[in-house]
Amino acid sequence: METRFAKESRCYKTARVFPTDVNNHNTLFGGKLMAYIDDIASIAASKHCRASVVTASTDSVDFLLPIQTTDSVCLESYVTWTGRSSMEVFVKVITEDLQNGERAIAATAFLTFVALDEHKKTVQVPQVVPETEEEQRLHETALYRAEVRRHRREESKKFADYLITKFPWE
Ligand SMILES: CC(C)(COP(=O)(O)OP(=O)(O)OC[C@H]1O[C@@H](n2cnc3c(N)ncnc32)[C@H](O)[C@@H]1OP(=O)(O)O)[C@@H](O)C(=O)NCCC(=O)NCCS
């Protein structure tokens, strides 16, 4: 089985917080950060498998601290665990106060991407090999998260079965 180091998928993105990016508290709008998260995570997944990928689920996004307009926001992302065609991707959001240099972890997220071939069929991805302490820790705890995802997916399917698609005006 082909393997690839977690570091081979690692990528970074840094942005300023512009006036058009904020909410009514004058801190970064959560939807904007979620778009950054999905964007960078999809790049990490693509770098890992070098195939077409789709977001299967955003498993968790934890907003730990508000992001101020004086902060820069830096996202780091890499593949932490692989199944057959699925990849768990971690995103770490680090803010830096541009006036005093203080850094903090403002958010963390886990997403699952699935690799597809040109016929939109799922394809096997290389197995990820963690190296650093952080990569190893996230890799070791991934089986538990995969089990939670599997259970939640089953529940979501059951839930979708009884949701209606009719609009109120119809
Ligand atoms: C994701 C998708 C390709 C899975 O297709 P599927 O026919 O259900 O495929 P399978 O059941 O064979 O699952 C394939 C893999 O995806 C994983 N998977 C599927 N749905 C998942 C979910 N909701 N969460 C986590 N993993 C999921 C499975 O565990 C499996 O992993 P493995 O190959 O590592 O064992 C399909 O559901 C899809 O196309 N969804 C829409 C994706 C999309 O459009 N994303 C953008 C949203 S705007």
From TrEMBL:
InterPro entries: Cytosol_ACT (IPR040170), HOTDOG_ACOT (IPR033120), HotDog_dom_sf (IPR029069), Thioestr_dom (IPR006683). Keywords: Hydrolase. It comes from the Bacteria. Coiled coil: none annotated. Pfam families: 4HBT. Residues 7-119 form the HotDog ACOT-type domain. Belongs to the acyl coenzyme A hydrolase family. This is Acyl-CoA thioesterase. The lineage of its organism: Bacteria, Bacillati, Bacillota, Bacilli, Bacillales.
